[in-house]
Task: structure prediction
Amino acid sequence: MEKAFVEMAAPEYWYTYAHELADTADQIYRTSKKQFVVYLHQYDDGSTKTERRPLVSRPVLLMYGLCFENMIKALLISEDPTLLQGGK
Result:
């Protein structure tokens, strides 16, 4: 069990996972950047207001954030492997 933990916590694992997340986020963004979610607000006075946002803006930003987190973990562990002590 500990051997599997050490292998999965290696900097290379975090680094390749970060690249996988970034590649996936890039692909999602490229294929859907012309798609939008539209919100129609209707008010008591009969007026309306339309707003839109890119369809995947939030999920793509989340994936890039996870990518960045994994890159930081890879760098920290490569600089200080003792961060893996105690199964954390």
Q: What stands out?
A: The helical segments are 2-8, 11-32, 57-79. The chain has a mean pLDDT of 85.
